[in-house]
What we know:
Layout: H1 4-20, E1 32-38, E2 45-55, E3 58-62, H2 73-80, E4 83-88, E5 91-99, H3 102-115, H4 117-123, E6 132-136
Antiparallel strand pairs: 1-2, 1-4, 2-3, 3-6, 4-5, 5-6
Helix pairs in contact: 3-4
Amino acid sequence: xxxxxxxxxxxxxxxxxxxxxxxxxxxxxxxVVLLTTTGARTGRRTTTPVGFGVDGGRVxxxxxxxxxxxxxxxxxxxxxxxxxTVELGGSSYEARAVIAEGDERDRLYGLIAAQVxxxxxxxxxxxxxxxxxxxxxxxxxx
Length: 142
């Protein structure tokens, strides 16, 4: 499992490529948004690349952190402050992060796990349940 420092370095490269290429990435086998959250403790704005899924007109993300034993920092941030900025393709949106619960969480996770086999692999690395977060105010890509 990569260290937090390795995640940070990797993510910085993904963010740079995403912004330089209008949201197109060469290395990842799944679609990504850039999610900017406000730190729960620090108040500092931080951007993280996150795999996303689409359910009808809704965009949602999964707090997998590649199967790490703890939730990613961005998830703790959206619990404290659900106002986020989402970059999708070449556009940016102000959005509200809403944590899916119960059957809705399970249904959305099932959708993305079926579309992106990496999520199923990540799940094998941990005992935790990956939170699913709907990004209200972000239009689904066509």
